[in-house]
Amino acid sequence: MKLMGDMLLRKEPFEEIVIGNTALVRAMVESGTRVVTSYPGSPTPEIATAIQSIPKGDRPFYFEFSTNEKVATEVAYGAAVNGHLSTVFFKSVGLNVAADTFVQLSLMNIIGGMVVVLGDDPGANSSQNEQDNRHLARLSYTPVLEPANPGEVYLFYKEAAALSSLHHMPVILRLTTHVCHAKEKVAFEGLPDIRFDDTPGFDVRNGPYIPLTTEVFAKKRRALQNLAAAEAYAEDTFINTVVDNGNDRQGIITMGLPFLSLMDVLEGAETKPDILKLGVVHPIPRSLVKDFLARHREVKVLEELDDILEKEVKSIAYDEGLTTRIVGKTGPEDWVGEYTADKVYTVISGSWPDLLPPRKRNAKQSPATPARPAQLCPGCGHRSAFYAIKKALVETDITVADIGCHTLGYLPPYEMGQLLMCMGASPGMGSGLSLFNDSRKVVAFMGDSTFFHAGLPGIVNAVFNRHAITLILMENGTTAMTGHQDHPATGHNFNDVTDKVPVRSVLEGLGVEHIYEVDTYQQKKLQVLVEKAVQDGGFSVVIARHPCMLKFTREQRRKKGYRPRQVSIDQAVCDRNHACVAEFGCPTFTRNADGSVEINTDLCIGDGSCIQTCPTSAIRPVAAKIDK
Amino acid sequence: MDAFNAYLIGVGGQGIGMLSEIMIRAADYAGHNVKAVDTHGLAQRGGTVVSHLRLGDRVHAPVIPDGEAHLVVALERNEALRGLDTAARDGGDLVFYDTVWQPLGVRLGREAPVHEEQLAKQCRNRSIRCHRVYDPNLDDQRMQNIVVLAEIGCLGLIPDVSHAHFRSAMEDLLAGSLLEKNMALYNAKCRRHPQ
């Protein structure tokens, strides 16, 4: 078996099939990165999985999951002004959380260098929007390098680290979902012999590091000078490339994954436009773009999400007095969704109808395949919670969701969580909904990792301003949705055992008066507690606890002597009232055409949380099978 | 080879990730240029998961264009129909494991279940060869993906990829008793079709 951890530390050059996120970690090792921080969020958590594959004692850098993206940015910054090359990584919307700190970075003399790795999500595969973070790069005068595939992730990170270290400025490496997760063979270089100097290098003479009014203008000038230096680099780097198809009529300027999609659709074209593929996407290398424009009569800017590059290219053409016809986005649809080959075909054909051959059409049947939305797992404690809480509320009550697995409660049959915004927003939104509202109870949900991430301010506000809402803290003991990372209440951090910060103690410390606790499998008790909590008249919290059963079951399976358990349905007792499928809704239950219900033995984990939901007691636990 | 696309589809938890990883490594051992991408994140929680696998010298992006999959591999019956509809290319191959993980709408009685005949009919109409796989004696659901892999290997559905390539890939990815169990199952299934 090939071990990822061995590969990431291999001394000699090698080739291996990796995803972009893994290639990134090898680049960190080769670059001498010393401190890495993060908060988990798709499409980036597999970066930490790769880091974890290196045994702790062999890991050449410190890594932590911080409590949120802003803190992670601060930890990486602190390390970098002490002289360490650092990196923070998180998902697209994580930059919103980090923004208050992030926008200051370019003003500072970051002596160790600092790379900010963003996992943007065109197509909103696993995010609440598909925001284009190049806007924040512009706002903060931060250069952006954007790779298209795992091989480029590896090369571009090393470039970003070098550029950042040279100019003591932050540099963004902008990844997108299908660059993080794309898999291909990458050729890695050998490991340089790196000697770390861990002398704390912080010195106010490298600053000032205090951005008071008197200092801000000088700092801003410095940021702009650095940006100009980055542009000079961009004019002359191998990471911007031209595909010369000998076409003086048509050219395309593009970047990132859309470049690969473009290459796919051009496979079928008789005449191919020339292509300028930018690796540095901010600042735009003016001369490079000017020369490319001047060599073509028409240039299409092929750009995923927003029209940032298009505006830059047009302004360069204007400034340079060029008459090249520049074709950008042609309508709102060009701003929406990921630029897959299918999308690129549509976008290019919209501007140049004759360039691409007609697409072959299959004899599609368009059958109605039943939709398969993501589901709470078999045994999930959230299912028991939603099942019970739904009974405690009336239909007009308002339920507010937060980010996490429990967001899935919005689906039938629970339909719990009617509003969702972003991390930690539920108590705040719920508080607003409670104003001038005596008739509809407001119940907010929040997971335990979110509680520590961004939940606390909204909770303190509810206490401070005496808002009458009930918060259900869905405590499953992990950051489940992103792959079971630890958080402050678990007693473990990424590296070690640590002291638990129990959610109850925090709530008590914040002055929450009404706190209830229950395991969600005690459905009746949970229902009664919620009925009571919503009558408390002020801010109340119900800690609805049950360990993540996906994590728990995986751990159990690894133990010696583990015996699978399942429930069964006594068909002689079952009266086909369908409470199990239609109200409790565990995916283990299969409804047959004749109305009978069966257990899917592929899925059932035998947790038994369903047994209490059957009005006729037809669901029976099955004793554990004997080990073979 | 110019291009060969294999589209893998199943439900979160069925082992699509491992199947895809074995296939990409086997294709690499066979000397192909390979690119792939899988679904990660929340969608894995009981939702549809897909994996795109592309081989050849004229492929660039990891995502397969709609309706361009030469081979659709489904680990579940509903997903087999979805895979046919969204990804399959006329005249290609479908391999599916005929288990059913009932989707939400069917469980709630709001949508009709998919029948095997629907799959067969669509395959006939589109000249897609339909290969149904099922093993009633398999005692570990998590090894259904290996049964499917063996079928792909036996039928030689990926150009130039042989049993030996699949075995090498499994050896890269698994160890100990897990490797032994999966390899034994693969070999048992392949006995009828030694390459």
Word description of this protein:
The complex is a heterodimer of chains A (628) and B (195). With 628 residues, chain A is α/β, with parallel strands linked by helices. Helix content of chain A is 34%, strand content 17%. The radius of gyration of chain A is 27 Å and the shape is globular. Chain B is an alpha/beta fold. Chain B is built from seven helices and six strands. Chain B has helices at 16-29, 77-86, 104-107, 116-125, 144-155, 163-173, 176-190; strands at residues 4-11, 34-38, 48-55, 69-74, 88-97, 129-133. In chain B, strands 2-3-1-4-5-6 form a six-stranded mixed beta sheet, with helices on both faces. Chains A and B meet through strand 8, helix 10, helix 13 and strand 21 of A and helix 1, strand 2, helix 2, strand 5 and helix 3 of B.
Instruction: Give helix and strand order of chain B, one letter per element, not per position.
Output: EHEEEHEHHEHHH
Given helix and strand content, the structural type of chain B is alpha/beta
Name the shape of chain B in a single word.
Answer: globular
- Biggest pleated sheet of chain B: 6 strands, mixed
What would the average pLDDT of chain B be, to the nearest integer?
A: 93
| Proportion of helical residues of chain B | 25-40%
Beta content of chain B comes to 15-25%
The greatest inter-chain interface is formed by: A-B, 66 and 68 residues
> Strand-residue fraction of chain A?
15-25%
Overall SS class of chain A: alpha/beta
Indicate the radius of gyration of chain A in whole angstroms.
Answer: 27 Å
Walk across the major sheet of chain A and give the strand order: 3-2-4-5-7-6-12
Give Rg of chain B in angstroms: 16 Å
Number of distinct beta strands of chain A: 23
The order of strands across the largest sheet of chain B is: 2-3-1-4-5-6
Low-confidence residue ranges of chain B: none
What is the oligomer described by this structure? heterodimer
**Sheet with the most strands, sense and barrel status of chain A:** 7 strands, mixed
